[in-house]
Each structure stands twice: as structure tokens, then as C-alpha cells.
């Protein structure tokens, strides 16, 4: 019967029936799980040829229903698989109570993907960020470097505390980082290489508050700080000239520039 029906309908997904979807071979299931008929999608769950890959593809289908998601979650064989848990969290039709449970099982890369996925319930995204922050201390330097390139604004706030030069360097090219974050990095670091990187960065080195923060950090190379002085406003030159923690040479140079600007 199924062979006759397959021959009749060919690969015309509009002609698929639930009975066909329950019995078709693994190759044909791929056509079904990418179709728009919820009844056929649900019928696939009864197909003995259904694999984990099929289930994940099904969860990515925008026409999936919450009922199908619940049936997948209720299947102990499927829900034990990590990739299916991750796909369930990413599925917009997964009920909140299930997503908030499964997000706890995800590794850092998947947590990051969840945090960045705007289709997901904002509460789940916030939970993914919180879990990732908790795991931050366990990550290797290499993992933190990768994370820095793609981190969300909330994660950036924690990564700017990192001491490793390579982590901060990658963070500086993250499109989500803002000027206030860069200033916080400058104010918190004593690493000359990090300060030099920021001073040479084409995007950030021209920002006034960044320049002011670099000059105010006693670890910024003196030649860099002096070159930046001439760009400051008078009130900031006064502050630098009276800053007790800065080099006497830098303070004297600030006084000289201030005199030139007031004359």
C-alpha cells in the first residue's frame, strides 16, 4: 500500500498523507519534516525510521505545534539526547516550563547561541546568560577568547574583568561592545599591552572618553599619554595636571598645553 502511494504522489509534499508519513522510508522523512502540514509533521513521530536528526529537523520547522513538541519531550529515548534538548530550547514552540528545565543542561556554546537567539522567550535568554556567567570561571582561555568575539552586552560586562590580553583584544572587536565598556577596561587594567592595544585601535582611540581614560591610567606608556594630551579640553587638562597618581612629566606637559590654550 505504501509503495503504491509513494509511486502515486512522488515527492509532491502537498500530496503526503498522515498514513504515508507514518510509514515512509528515512530519506522521504526529510521531505515531510520540511513541509508545512502539522498533521503530517505529527504523524512522523510514529514512523519507525525516525532518527535523532529527523527530530532535530522537525524542531526547526516553523510550522511545528506545541503538541508535537510535548510529544517529543515525553519520549524518554529522545529527551536523553543532548542535541535534542538543545533543539527544544531553540524551538519557539517549546513551553516555557520545558525550556527553562532543558537550558540547564547546555554547554557554553549552546548557552551563548540561546542568549543571542531573539526568537526565544527573553526569560530563557536571560537564564542562558546567567548560567554562562556562572560557568565563566570554568572556561579555558581559548574558550573565553571565542566567547569574547560573540558575547552579548550582559556577558561583556563580566568579560571586561578578564586579565588575559588575548581575551580583551577579541572583546574590543565584538560589535556589541560600547564605549563605556572600553573605558571600564582601561580603568580596571594594569596591563600595558591592553592599554597599547586600545590606544592603537582605530574604532576606540578617537573617542574622547577613551583618550581621557588612557591618559588617566598611570600604566599607559608615557609617549602615548603625552600625545593624547593635546586633544583634551581645558577642564580635563587641569584635572590631569593635578592628578597625584600620574607621572610628573605628564602633569607638567598638561600644564604647558593648558597655558598654550589659555594664552
Topology:
Elements: H1 2-9, H2 18-23, H3 26-33, H4 38-44, H5 52-59, H6 66-74, H7 76-79, H8 82-90, H9 96-102, H10 108-116, H11 122-135, H12 141-150, H13 153-159, H14 165-171, H15 179-188, H16 192-200, H17 208-216, H18 222-229, H19 234-241, H20 248-262
What distinguishing features does this structure have?
mainly alpha; disordered N terminus
- The arrangement of helices and strands along the chain is HHHHHHHHHHHHHHHHHHHH
Q: Based on DSSP secondary structure assignment, what is the total number of beta strands?
A: 0
Strand content: under 5%
- What ranges have pLDDT less than 50 throughout 5 or more consecutive residues? 1-10
Mean pLDDT metric:
92
Residues in helix, %: 55-70%
Could you tell me the radius of gyration in angstroms?
28 Å
Q: Characterize the largest beta sheet: strand count, sense, and whether it forms a barrel.
A: none
Task: Explain the overall architecture.
The chain is mainly α and 263 residues long. Helices cover 65% and strands 0% of the residues. It is built from 20 helices and no strands. The protein has helices at 2-9, 18-23, 26-33, 38-44, 52-59, 66-74, 76-79, 82-90, 96-102, 108-116, 122-135, 141-150, 153-159, 165-171, 179-188, 192-200, 208-216, 222-229, 234-241, 248-262. Helix 8 crosses helix 9 (96-102), helix 12 runs parallel beside helix 14 (165-171) and helix 19 runs antiparallel to helix 20 (248-262). The longest helix has 15 residues, at 248-262. 32% of the residues are buried. Residues 1-10 have low confidence and may be disordered.
Amino acid at each position: 500500500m505504501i509503495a503504491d502511494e509513494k509511486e502515486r504522489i512522488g515527492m509532491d509534499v502537498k500530496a503526503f498523507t498522515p498514513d504515508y508519513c507514518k510509514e515512509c522510508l528515512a530519506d522521504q522523512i526529510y521531505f515531510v519534516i520540511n513541509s508545512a502540514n502539522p498533521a503530517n509533521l505529527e504523524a512522523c513521530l510514529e514512523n519507525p525510521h525516525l532518527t535523532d536528526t529527523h527530530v532535530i529537523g522537525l524542531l526547526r520547522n516553523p510550522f511545528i505545534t506545541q503538541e508535537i513538541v510535548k510529544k517529543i519531550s515525553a519520549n524518554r529515548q529522545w529527551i536523553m539526547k543532548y542535541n535534542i534538548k538543545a533543539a527544544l530550547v531553540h524551538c519557539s514552540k517549546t513551553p516555557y516550563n520545558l525550556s527553562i528545565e532543558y537550558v540547564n543542561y547546555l554547554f557554553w556554546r549552546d548557552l551563548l547561541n540561546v542568549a543571542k537567539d531573539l526568537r526565544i522567550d527573553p526569560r530563557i535568554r536571560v537564564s542562558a546568560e546567567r548560567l554562562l556567567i556562572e560557568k565563566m570561571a570554568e572556561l579555558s582561555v581559548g574558550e573565553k577568547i571565542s566567547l569574547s568575539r560573540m558575547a552579548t552586552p550582559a556577558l561583556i560586562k563580566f568579560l571586561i574583568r578578564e586579565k588575559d590580553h588575548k581575551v580583551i583584544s577579541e572583546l574590543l572587536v565584538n560589535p556589541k561592545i560600547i564605549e563605556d565598556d572600553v573605558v571600564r577596561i582601561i580603568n580596571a587594567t594594569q596591563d600595558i599591552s591592553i592599554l597599547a592595544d586600545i590606544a592603537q585601535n582605530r574604532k576606540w582611540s578617537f573617542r574622547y572618553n577613551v583618550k581621557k581614560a588612557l591618559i588617566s591610567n598611570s600604566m599607559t606608556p608615557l609617549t602615548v599619554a603625552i600625545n593624547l594630551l593635546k586633544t583634551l579640553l581645558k577642564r580635563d587638562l587641569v584635572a590631569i595636571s593635578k592628578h597625584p597618581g600620574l607621572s610628573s612629566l605628564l602633569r607638567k606637559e598638561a600644564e604647558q598645553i593648558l597655558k598654550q590654550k589659555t594664552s
